[in-house]
Amino acid sequence: MATLQRSYEDVIQLFGKSGRYLTPTMFGAGRQVFEKDPALKDDPRFKLYPEWMQQQTAQMANLATPNLGIDPSGNGKMVMDVMHAGGIIVAGTDTPNAINLHGELAAYVAAGMTPFEALKAATVNPAHALVLDAGTIEAGKLADLVIVDGDPLADVANAHKVRRVIANGRLYELNQLLNQHPVSATQ
User: N or C of the chain: less Cβ packing under 10 Å?
Assistant: First the structure.
C-alpha cells in the first residue's frame, strides 16, 4: 500500500528561514523498536501503563508488518530537508506510549540524522521550543537524567535501555521505580 508523501520546496524553505519547529510523528516508528528488540514487549515498565495501553502495546509488538523502514523519499526526506534548511525538529508522538518516542528517534536516524541529532530533537529542541531552561546538562540548570545500558550516540536504540534515573537530585534504580506505588491526589 503506497501513500502519497511529499514535501514542497517552498514550505521547506519557510520552515528553514523562519527557524520553525516541526514535530513530524513518523507513522509506524514504534513497531521498528519491537522488530529490533522483540523481548521489549515483556519489559516490566509496560505493566505500569493502563490495561488498554498494555493491550495496544502488545498488539503493536505482535504485528508482523514487513518493510516498516522509513522511506527515504517520503517523510524521512521531508524531515531531513527541513532540518538542513534550518528548521528545528522536535521529537514527539501522538500516543502516550513512550516506546513510540524511541521509535521516532530510530526513524530520524534511519532518515539520515546522526544519533546525536535525534537525541537533540528529544531534549534540547523541545526545551528551546517551550522556552525552558533545560534540555542540556549545565551548571545551574535543572535536570533529570537517565542512565542507560549502551551508548545511544553509537546506537540510538540504547536510549530506551534505562537502568537508573536521577530526578530531583535523587538516584533511583530501575527496580525502585518499578516497585513504587503511585501517590494519590489526596495524600
Answer: N
